[in-house]
Design brief:
The protein is of the alpha+beta class and 182 residues long. It is 25% helix and 43% strand. The radius of gyration is 18 Å and the shape is globular.
């Protein structure tokens, strides 16, 4: 295996970091198309209550998200280990979920780490496996102060392509394949 240059390693790590961010975005926007574009066809996922192929994970997670009023994943520390055309990462996350319940909305926080594996195939990095490890969670009555019934011109946390971020930039698209020497 040829030694990877420092610049190549930085480019690969940035590409993988953006995949991690795009996956969080795809979940929070309920964008199944974007989510599917981030995985290799034979990729797998282990979310504890779901273990299987990434192709089966997508409709499963979209169904789970359909039970939530709002969701937001905040990505923290990302450590990436490169090994040629393979990589492994550990990413801290805090997921905020607002769930409608009898008696009012509940805010559920889940925090943990994503243990991901990536492969570069045909010059393109994608997920080959995601494992969500949950470190802690909590629930409390939701205390959202935004007037969601009549928000005026500002829409907070829209799902799907109606979200302002889709009009702002084409960041919802898969990252371009970067070509560089090894």
């Amino acid at each position: 295996m040829a030694t990877q240059s420092a610049i190549d390693a930085l480019i690969d790590k940035q590409t993988i970091t953006e995949l991690i961010y795009r996956l969080a975005r795809s979940i929070d926007r309920c964008d199944a198309g974007l989510l599917g574009s981030l995985f290799h066809p034979d990729a797998t996922d282990d979310h504890g209550s779901f273990v299987g192929t990434a192709a089966d994970f997508i409709p499963w997670v979209m169904g789970v998200l359909g039970t939530m009023e709002r969701t937001q994943h905040v990505i923290g520390n990302i450590l990436i280990d490169l090994d040629g055309d393979s990589a492994a990462s550990e990413t801290y996350f805090v997921a905020h979920h607002v769930i409608a319940r009898e008696g009012g909305e509940v805010l559920m926080l889940a925090a943990g780490r994503y243990l991901d594996r990536f492969e570069r195939r045909d010059g393109q990095w994608k997920f080959s496996h995601r494992h969500a490890v949950y470190d802690w969670s909590s629930t409390a009555p939701a205390s959202d102060i935004w007037n969601r019934a009549d928000p005026g011109v500002t829409i907070f946390g829209q799902r799907g392509t109606a979200d302002a971020s889709y009009a702002n930039q084409p960041a919802h698209r898969p990252a371009p394949v970067l070509q560089h020497a090894h």
